Fold these 3 entries.
Entry 1:
Amino acid sequence: MSMSGLPYHHDTAEKIRIASGLPRQPGQTDEPLPADVDDVSGAGDEDYRRDGHDHPDGGAMPVTARNPNEAGEKDDQSVESANVEGLLTEIDHIAIAVNDLGDAIDYYRETFGAVVDHREVVESDGVEEALLKVAESYIQLLTPTRDDSPVAKYLEKKGEGLHHIGYRVADCGAALEAVKAQGGRVIDEAPRPGSRGTTVAFIHPKTAFGTLIELVQE
Ligand code: CO
């Protein structure tokens, strides 16, 4: 699902970055994110990818902050991550942007026997979605309902394909704060309503290794 277009609070993120002792990220500037960043499409994806390729040793924000005192030491991630609780409880959904929802639904039913469990138009995001249940997770087929929808822009730019991953969490607000505390960029500064009565927040792909992540609390 998509963003509400909330502005990016750069100052807050910057304070967190400084407080966390995290390095300024490559390409990070004092400018707010470009307007199309709340484009669910993972706007500027080409830029994100380029960053990743140019800085394989840490161009993207590390998942775990490294202790500067241990810089250069052998991999200390296991030590670091031991302090982080497991916030993700399940894969909630895999979102796929498609041009024709009916065609995509037919494909999944005819090929895999996967059927629609829930269908919803989310006007605020300009999308219609169909959720196909697979065990405890969903395949979320997404299509735009209007031309200025972020998903419409995504399709125009990238074509059909993987759009975002929804990770299920017990507490969306707590998980979002954990992302911010690590200096990660977020698209939603606070949790907001998602489809099927969930509470969600999106994390910017720039600091999430090129993946648009949605935190989903049921
Ligand atoms: Co979603």
Entry 2:
Amino acid sequence: IEHIDADVVVIGAGVAGLSAAPRLVEAGHDVVVLEARERVGGRLWTEVIGGTLLELGGQWVSPDQTALLETVETLGLETFERYRAGESVYVDGAGERIRFTGEQLPVADDTVAEMERLTALLDELVADIGAEEPWAHPRARELDTVSFAAWLAQQSSDEVACRHIAMFIGEAMLTKPAHAFSALQAVLMAASAGSFSNLVDSEFILDRRVVGGLQRVPLTLAERLGERVRTGTPVRRLEHTPDGVVVTSDRVVVRARRAIVAMPPTLIPRIDFQPPLPRRQHQLHQHLSFGLVIKVHAVYDRPFWREDGLSGTAFSPYLLVHEAYDNTNHEDERGTLVGFVSDEHADGVFAMDAEQRRERILADLAAYFGPEAANPVVYYESDWGTEEWTRGAYGASYDLGGLSRYGADQRTPVGPIHWACSDFAGLGFQHVDGGIRSGWAAAADVVAALDA
Ligand code: FAD
């Protein structure tokens, strides 16, 4: 086992940890980054599978994500626009396929009006509560002790409208059923993108991609950090005193003045802290859990749906694949569709064997885009639930009451230990942008502490 002395040890080489480290280096500090996996990037992961580049984790960039956009630019990476020309598809409760354009789903006029009313209501709450400190708002406890499903039912008797609004936050974002998270947690999710309107606007939230995949961001950051980044070093133990830490991983022991733990908060309790963390930290980590979603990639010899005038965008709260998009790579002849199967639907298809599951999921893509969709040349399911160092997707969120009760403590340092992750409240919450912001914030705190 190798022993290293450093000023700061960063645990986790996801985008949060890899955004913190360069700031510390710029401020003149020695940094070591310890990463459990044999690769960097965490929930950003690009692989060539069956001859096509697939983004197995996070991929989209939206115009409000200025920390990510700044990073992409600084690293000299290029972006391209998601293909969106043509008509979108919606499948209704009777299984009928309806083509439409624009953001408004083709549902009954009174349901459209009701969805617009609920959207305005959520936009108002978002404007009032914000992304940074939702727990500090006078209505925090009230909104945090009712499930989003129950809250929607209180606001509207139009079940179809409620079901669609629930889908945008539940299946599509927190990847939990809307009975399993609070209205306040839903407001935070929307606030992360500036407004609920932004969050549900696929033109906005799914705007661009990075050429070569979004994992280029952590890969390039790590490349620049060079030998400071050690992969294959899962951290098992963290001993701390007010003056510093000793961090033990499988291959390296680092003695440092400060630590930044840049891991999903749900995995933090797997580290043996000595002395143990304070009561508030123990409690708050137990009130967070990961959602679950299968990201399905289907690659075809050409983007055949475009010939039919379709954009590749599709929605239905009635199908297992609740949303799908054209995910064709930059300057690629092959066409790729990406679809998502979320929360309890994911449980359902995971209970099937792999062949059945593939058939069932492709049947939904065929319901959206026609029979050709059932026969891809490459089919792949991103299954983050089985990833030892993640255990779900996209991110972690609080149970009922957890955000208002514990949120204020999520980033509070414990002695020399600081925290960073996209799963903490803030702009870009549960997105790469939020991970970068949290890394920058933790680095600034550490620099200030070291300079004091
Ligand atoms: P992570 O990426 O989870 O990084 C934490 C790191 O810590 C990991 O590398 C992990 O291996 C490491 N680690 C864990 N335990 C230990 C240990 N004991 N010792 C050492 N290292 C450890 N976001 C978007 O902005 N746009 C999208 O389109 C998008 N789509 C997504 C699709 C999927 C399928 C998924 C899974 C996520 C998506 N996201 C998206 C979310 C985004 O990927 C994450 O919010 C972000 O990448 C998280 O970064 P992070 O650094 O905070 O955490």
Entry 3:
Amino acid sequence: AKSDKKYKRILLKLSGEALMGDAEFGIDPKVLDRMAVEVGQLVGLGVEIGMVIGGGNLFRGSALHAAGMERVTGDHMGMLATVMNALAMRDALERAGISTRVMSAIPMSGVVEHYDRRAAMRHLRNGDVVIFAAGTGNPFFTTDSAACLRGIEIDAQLILKATKVDGVYSADPMRVPDAVKFEYLTYDEVLDKKLGVMDLTAICLVRDHDIPVCVFNMQKPGSLLNNVMGTTDGTLIGV
Ligand code: UDP
């Protein structure tokens, strides 16, 4: 089915919260194992996969700052949290037989590779999953912005943002029962309607570079595969 696939190279963004399952904090290896199965299906189809993982299950700079810590220190801790999540994800992927690299924006010799775009491209062409850790390496950014930045850098054809709901809704579907789901949105609609899909930096980056973003539910089995095969199962944001 190799010729059927719509997207050859993708960037998958997982929030840190997606890794904690039903817990309030931390990492649930069982959740990671389920994700590894879904990612493995794509690898089997020859899709090249870059990943960015958030850190919100461990630390967020803004939350630490609100509790009294200096913001930049908090952001550094948040970025280090994404490295821990990346190590856990690599562990799950490798146990599932999927060759994986972690490249960190903050050098951490002996633990992970330092991000190098050309090396990342080589790994992707070799069929290795590449997890981009430590966000952009800079405070005051988010891992959504890191996902869009790395997605653009590696020439991804699609950025997939995994969330707890199956797309973008007119209001929070957990709270507003008659909230409607959008099948398709332009970048400008996301901005005008203040839908809060991603922060402004991230949306503006993808808009400037015309990369489509798919918002979908990673907990729904097969949804990742469908979206990558070109059948939208979520919300597609594009031009
Ligand atoms: N962070 C940062 N720069 C980046 C990416 C992330 O400073 O380029 C910090 C920031 O403090 C953020 C934390 O890392 O709160 C975790 O990332 P994020 O909140 O995006 O994780 P998610 O919500 O996706 O789990």
